[in-house]
Write a structure and sequence with these properties.
The protein is mainly β. It is 11% helix and 41% strand.
């Protein structure tokens, strides 16, 4: 079931080292803003939005650590694929490398095939349904943004302030009713962390860590391709219930 292609790390088709995971393509660099613009909330947010428009798809393989209250702590090999705005494929493998569970969201639809039971779940692509496999409740659109190392926009929020944090910059977005998002970026606009009320995300070398509600998920990719050519096939985000497997309809 590995539809993710090459096992070596590539970005835009070029082999690179582990330390550059989630960095911009070497032949398509994102220049740092002038100092005055880095301190201007609106201009910094506009630059981050422009950077996000250069990233559309990602696929890769690696390890995931999943922890949640009341659940066993899991460390599993995974294959992933993600495509804007909210298409996601998350394949968990057994100790022997065989598929154990497959989660897919596409065009607002959610499926989870638990191969071990077996059981096939079918419903809407919501944070609650994703949490059946992934321990942190996060919307598919937000998770896809984070996998692409871009900050998920907070609905109806505007950039309000920027402050320095060591060599980084922290941008605040706020809504009219006081809901806030904090986005920490490096001087070259690489994403360091995102903080929401419901969850927090951080990037550390090759690891994306998301926490919230007492749960956490760490994803470390040993190979990944940003905007693969040719693009990810539609079959990467499609699966049907195998014959004879029970189906449970979800809200």
């Amino acid at each position: 079931m590995n539809i993710l292609g090459s096992r070596h790390r590539t970005i835009c088709g070029t082999a690179i080292g582990l330390s550059t995971l989630f960095n911009a393509c070497a032949h398509r660099p994102i220049p740092a803003l002038p100092s005055a613009e880095m301190h201007d909330a609106s201009k910094l947010w506009a630059a981050l939005e422009a950077r996000a428009q250069t990233r559309h798809e990602i696929s890769g393989s690696g390890k995931a650590k999943l922890q949640a209250p009341g659940r066993d702590h899991l460390s599993v090999a995974v294959n992933i694929a993600a495509r804007r705005p909210a298409d996601l494929r998350f394949e968990a493998l057994s100790f022997f490398g065989d598929p154990a569970a497959l989660l897919i969201t596409a065009r607002g639809h959610f499926v989870l095939y638990d191969i071990r039971k077996p059981m096939y779940y079918d419903g809407r692509a919501t944070a609650e349904n994703l949490a059946r496999l992934l321990p942190v409740a996060i919307d598919p659109e937000e998770l896809v943004d984070l996998l692409l190392e871009t900050a998920p926009p907070l609905a109806d929020a505007l950039p309000t302030s920027v402050e320095e944090a060591g060599d980084d910059f922290v941008l605040r977005l706020s809504t009219a009713n006081g809901v806030e998002e904090k986005i920490r970026v490096a001087a070259d606009l690489r994403l360091r962390a995102v903080e929401r009320l419901a969850w927090q995300a951080s990037f550390d070398d090759s690891t994306l860590r998301i926490t919230g509600g007492g749960a956490s998920m760490e994803l470390s990719l040993s190979s990944e391709t940003l905007d693969p050519q040719p693009p990810l096939p539609e079959s990467a985000f499609a699966v049907g219930a195998p014959p004879g497997v029970p189906v449970e309809r979800l809200p």
